[in-house]
Write a structure and sequence with these properties.
The protein has about 350 residues and is of the alpha/beta class. It is built from 15 helices and eight strands. A hairpin with a 5-residue loop joins strand 7 and strand 8.
Length: about 350
């Protein structure tokens, strides 16, 4: 049977989390595809029925005609659901990641959004040990871009209140630059993994040299870094710079001043930076970038706090902040996506 690209959504997939496997469709009378069964397993996981989800996924390993893509997908789901059972199951969960890494860590792009943060960090560690943190296909004939955490140069109460916002802005920029087909965008947490590894986070503000150092390790062509400076409740400034990793030169920059509508500023700056990099955007891409986000500063700060707790593996607090962000603005699709990812892990 010829293998064709196949997409199958679980209920989690309705939130934008899509499992993509190289599988053939299911004809009448045939057994369900691997993708169908894994979608069922993820639905059970979402309903907190971990053991039933594990059995559904594990039974697939008995099939005789599994491709490497199938096996990777099965181990991926087994790792996620096993991890959800608690700390006592961490090593078993990591064992499935080891199996994926033995098959080939670059067969499909990983990790995906649905992976809990601790598994994502452990995966980066596996890849680093194998010297495969950057796959060949990630940097071949494409423009790879990475966004550093933004510095917070705000004054007074806003220095503390917006303390996590730099991480949130990096996430927003990563998400929106990812909508531009001309770019491959490196995951925010992969950048932070490298920064922790070489202890750059202890050195304070992110400068050009820091960005270039991280970019060389990750095989990026461009590094984006920037800052926010809020001085009172109605005045802020956001500055964005793009540095060439090859030359270490700042090749362009842009800024916005005005009301602290950070999501709106971010989207405007993504479009301006793309134009300055001579990237032509069609109407559909512009509309896609303009979607999502939030005009609520409180929703933005709760989202950023959710990311901060997520990075600390405190999934209950992460879920609560993502949930609050979404409740503050029901159009904040990024908050909804993260809320649904961490709901099964919130305790």
């Amino acid at each position: 049977m010829q293998c064709l690209p196949f997409m199958r959504r679980s209920r989690l997939g309705a939130l934008g989390i899509i499992l993509v496997f190289a599988l053939a469709g299911t004809a009448p009378g045939q057994e369900a595809t691997v993708a169908d069964r894994l979608a069922e397993a993820l639905d059970l996981y979402n309903d907190l029925e971990y053991d039933a989800g594990l059995k559904t996924a594990d039974d697939l390993l008995q099939r005789s005609n599994l491709t490497s893509y199938d096996s990777v997908a099965i181990y991926e789901v087994l790792s996620i659901i096993t991890y959800a059972k608690g700390e006592a199951y961490l090593q078993e969960s990591l064992g499935y990641l080891n199996k994926i890494s033995a098959i080939g860590p670059c067969i499909v792009p990983m990790p995906r959004d649905i992976w809990p943060q601790e598994l994502r960090d452990r995966w980066y560690q596996f890849l680093r040990e194998k010297d495969q943190l950057v796959c060949d296909q990630e940097t071949k004939d494409i423009t790879t871009i990475a966004i550093m955490p933004f510095d917070n140069f705000s004054t007074g109460e806003y220095q503390e209140k917006l303390g996590a916002l730099g991480k949130g802005l990096a996430d927003f920029f990563t998400y929106d630059f990812g909508k531009i087909s001309s770019f491959t965008v490196i995951e925010r947490d992969k950048i932070e993994f490298i920064m922790r590894e070489i202890e750059l986070q202890k050195s304070g503000a992110v400068d050009r040299a820091t960005a270039v150092q991280v970019g060389k390790i990750l095989g990026a062509k461009y590094m984006v870094f920037g800052s926010i400076t809020q001085i009172d409740y109605k005045n802020t400034r956001m500055v964005v710079r793009v540095v060439s990793v090859e030359t270490s030169e700042i090749i362009t920059q842009a800024d916005r001043e005005g009301k602290p509508q950070y999501s709106k500023m971010e989207k405007e700056l993504v479009l301006e930076i793309a134009e300055k990099l001579d990237v032509k955007l069609n109407k559909e891409t512009v509309e896609l970038i303009e979607q999502g986000g939030t005009e609520s500063l409180d929703a933005t700060t709760h989202y950023a706090l959710g990311l901060d707790y997520m990075d600390k593996y405190d999934y209950k607090q992460a879920f609560e902040h993502f949930k609050t962000a979404y409740e503050l603005d029901n159009g904040f699709t990024e908050a909804k996506r993260k809320m649904e990812i961490y709901r099964p892990l919130a305790g």
